[in-house]
């Protein structure tokens, strides 16, 4: 068990190497090097920390297994996000062993223990009572490992591992489902989803992130209980949905959400994209829903959340049923970006995304049609356009937008070339003149100030003004 201190053999090696240093101490009698070993710390992993806690529980006479996601992920060769322990120790016994731990979930048999900087959830083997609210059990009863496995959501999440031996304890057939890449509810699927409706979305999230098939009975139960998701808070839906939409198989995830009826509950706008025809000369691939799914597929595997969301929402206002001040027809194929930005804002706000994410996605959706006009933009406008912090993501949005439809690459190539051309200096450098200069010229602060300074900056970005002296002359002239 690695700890924070040096290991024996490494200590010997360290002592050896340190003897080459200046402070070597050798026993005059035996000739043995007595120099103190330099302090060396080995990083303790989350697994080390959890295994140490399990060992302590086990030394105190309790059964203690790794449980749930960490066992699943390790068997899949993935790095577990965190480690959970399931044990025969009661919450009181856990607290006796690890005093000062977080008792927040003690009522449900869960204690959070901090060890080596990691938080490990230690939960007593339990059977859940009834789920009155479809979110959490009204009561729990402490029970056996087998019953604890059977109360869990999916077979692949119902596995235990005995940490010292690495032995897998499987009461629910999780191992064979992992091998077959199958997501299957434990026991009666309908019961699992009635107990906790978040599991409906977890099912689609696991099928997407792991690229697993959903076993038919489990799928039928999801479809049947989809409306139950209404009981779940937007924050919890958002967290599952975000994990799904950043996964490499996000397009399939979207399809599963739509086909299961879950999208209808928290993201009904997407349903209008289905069957929303587009002009075939621009969009030979088909309707907006097909176009969006192809785009999601074309994104890099590690595309950030803001980019995935902006791709998902970029054409959200295209369906002609949407109305906007200027009339639905204009919106449909021309002005849909402005309405789309507003809709993206509303959808993400409803799902309680952080303001920065909402702002970025709204901004990207609002500008995505402008990429068609970049070659006609004057240099100053283009530089300002490219200076947006979201621009690299927008470029990717544009790339997949074209690649999934008409295949045009000229605007993309133009922007890449311009990026190289402008690379030697900041796109928008500090202005050559400022408000102080205008006051010195005898102007009073007001709206004209902003206009003049912006015009001076445009001259600068166009390369017509390069020195402060020239800019001051220009300002003097313009202010007349
Ligand atoms: N609604 C839920 C949530 C969790 N669990 C059980 O609790 C374990 C831990 O849950 P959690 O940490 O939320 O998810 P993980 O399965 O660990 O998956 P991930 O780490 O990817 O979130 C799950 O494996 C599953 O056995 C469950 O039965 N029902």
UniProtKB/TrEMBL annotation:
Give the Polar residues compositional bias ranges. Answer: 15-29
Describe the location of the tRNA nucleotidyltransferase/poly(A) polymerase RNA and SrmB- binding domain by residue ranges: 211-270
- Which UniProt keywords are listed? Magnesium, Metal-binding, Nucleotide-binding, Nucleotidyltransferase, RNA-binding, Transferase, tRNA processing
InterPro entries membership: Bact_CCA-adding_enz_type3_sf (IPR050264), CCA-adding_enz_C (IPR032810), HD/PDEase_dom (IPR003607), NT_sf (IPR043519), PolA_pol_head_dom (IPR002646), PolyA_RNA-bd (IPR032828)
One Pfam family this sequence matches: PolyA_pol
| Domain named Poly A polymerase head: residues | 64-184
Q: Where is this region: Disordered?
A: 1-35
Q: Which cofactor names does the annotation list? A: Mg(2+)
- Annotated CCA-adding enzyme C-terminal domain residues: 343-472
UniProt similarity note? Belongs to the tRNA nucleotidyltransferase/poly(A) polymerase family.
The protein's name in its UniProt record: tRNA nucleotidyltransferase/poly(A) polymerase
The source organism is: Haloferula helveola
């Amino acid at each position: 068990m690695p700890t924070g201190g040096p290991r024996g053999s490494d200590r010997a090696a360290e002592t050896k190497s340190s003897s080459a240093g200046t402070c070597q101490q050798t026993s005059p009698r035996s000739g043995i090097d007595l120099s103190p070993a330099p302090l060396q710390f080995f990083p303790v992993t989350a697994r080390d920390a959890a295994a140490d806690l399990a060992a302590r529980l086990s030394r105190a006479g309790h059964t203690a297994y790794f449980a749930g996601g960490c066992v699943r992920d390790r068997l899949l060769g993935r790095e577990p996000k965190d480690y959970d322990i399931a044990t025969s120790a009661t919450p009181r016994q856990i607290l006796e062993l690890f005093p000062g731990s977080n008792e927040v979930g003690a009522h449900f048999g869960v204690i959070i223990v901090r060890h080596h900087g990691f938080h490990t959830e230690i939960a007593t083997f339990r059977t859940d009572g009834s789920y009155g609210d479809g979110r959490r059990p009204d009561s729990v009863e402490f029970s056996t490992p087998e019953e604890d496995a059977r109360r869990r959501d999916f077979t692949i999440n119902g596995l235990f591992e005995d940490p010292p031996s690495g032995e897998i304890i499987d009461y629910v057939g999780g191992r064979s489902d992992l091998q077959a890449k199958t997501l299957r509810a434990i026991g009666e699927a309908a019961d699992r989803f009635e107990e906790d409706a978040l599991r409906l979305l977890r099912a689609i999230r696991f099928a997407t992130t792991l690229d697993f098939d959903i076993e038919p009975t489990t799928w039928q139960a999801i479809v049947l209980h989809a409306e139950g998701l209404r009981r779940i808070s937007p924050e919890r839906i958002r967290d599952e949905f975000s994990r799904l939409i950043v996964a490499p198989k996000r397009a399939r995830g979207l399809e599963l959400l739509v086909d299961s009826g879950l999208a209808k509950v928290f993201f009904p706008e997407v349903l209008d994209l289905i069957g929303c025809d587009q002009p075939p000369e621009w969009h030979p691939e088909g309707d907006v829903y097909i176009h969006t799914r192809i785009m999601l597929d074309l994104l890099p595997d590690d595309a950030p959340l803001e980019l995935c969301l902006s791709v998902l929402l970029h054409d959200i206002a295209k369906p002609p049923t949407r109305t906007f001040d200027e009339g639905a027809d204009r919106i449909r194929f021309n002005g849909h970006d402005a309405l789309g930005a507003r809709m993206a804002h509303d959808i993400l706000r409803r799902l309680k995304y952080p303001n920065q994410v909402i702002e970025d996605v709204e901004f990207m959706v609002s500008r995505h049609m402008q990429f068609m006009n970049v070659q006609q933009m004057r240099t100053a406008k283009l530089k300002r356009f490219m200076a947006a912090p979201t621009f690299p993501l927008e470029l990717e949005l544009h790339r997949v937008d074209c690649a999934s439809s008409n295949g045009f690459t000229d605007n993309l190539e133009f922007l890449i070339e311009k990026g190289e051309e402008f690379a030697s200096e900041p796109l928008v450098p500090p202005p050559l003149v400022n408000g102080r200069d205008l006051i010195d010229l005898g102007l009073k602060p007001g709206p004209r100030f902003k206009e003049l300074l912006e015009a001076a900056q445009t001259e600068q970005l166009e390369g017509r003004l390069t020195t402060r002296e020239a800019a001051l002359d220009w300002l003097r002239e313009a202010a007349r």
